[in-house]
């Protein structure tokens, strides 16, 4: 049976995490990448759907042979999805995951009661 100190209860640990500079920075960095990319992709996708619905003559324009603007735009939709997914994975592997692992280690230490000092904001 484990006796937990009230300073390291799950609620207090998670509250300290939520308010920590490290976690706030982690959320800011992730949001700084995800939000612009999401807006760009949704705009691109909505433009494709909008053109298909409201400008079918434009989408039917033949570019080369029987290849139309709609087909080219559709292929670009698929490719852009793959590119954005790849960029996101690279970004998270390089920028987010190491910081998330650091925060996770701090949580584990705090839950074990290894530190009586302020949990977050110190040196790594």
From TrEMBL:
The coiled-coil regions, if any, are none
Q: Which residues cross the membrane?
A: 33-57, 63-89
Q: Which UniProt keywords apply?
A: Membrane, Transmembrane, Transmembrane helix
Q: Which domain of life is it from?
A: Bacteria
Under InterPro entries, the record lists: DUF485
Q: Which Pfam families match?
A: DUF485
* Protein name (database record): DUF485 domain-containing protein
Look up and give the organism this protein is from.
Pseudonocardia eucalypti
